[in-house]
Amino acid sequence: MSSKYEYLILLSLGIMFLFVGLFFGASLQTVWLDEVMLTEPASNLYLYGKFTSSAWFHQSNNVFHVSVSPLHTILLALWMKIVGFNLVKVRLLNYFLMLLSSVFLWLAVKRLKLITSPWLRIILIASFLMVGGINF
Fold this sequence. Notes:
By secondary structure, this protein is an all-alpha fold. It contains 6 helices and no strands. It has helices at residues 3-28, 33-48, 70-83, 87-111, 118-129, 132-135. Helix 1 runs antiparallel to helix 4 (87-111), helix 1 runs parallel beside helix 5 (118-129) and helix 2 (33-48) crosses helix 3 (70-83). It starts with a helix and ends with a helix. The model has no long low-confidence stretch (mean pLDDT 86).
């Protein structure tokens, strides 16, 4: 198989992944605890201009938020300024980050010649994108 077809198949997989996430993501996965804990500080910053959270057990909603992943939370707040705030729009950032991660995984596997078969690389990326519980 030529590289052109591999690119087209991977692009198709990425588009399908985004399609499923955008149109079915909110109904496929319920909101889970870690999603609330990472999204609530960003939504408070977006909606109220305060980087606070009441979802974390060790802090109240009137103190500056300190958590395990402040970069993701701040990036999510910036994302909300661009696209707005609802469940699908918040999860859309995660879908784009998954696609970006899969591109880097594919590039690394191809450049290091860890997987030489184009079909096996496609299967790797497809399996990476289809881990529903983690991705959504």
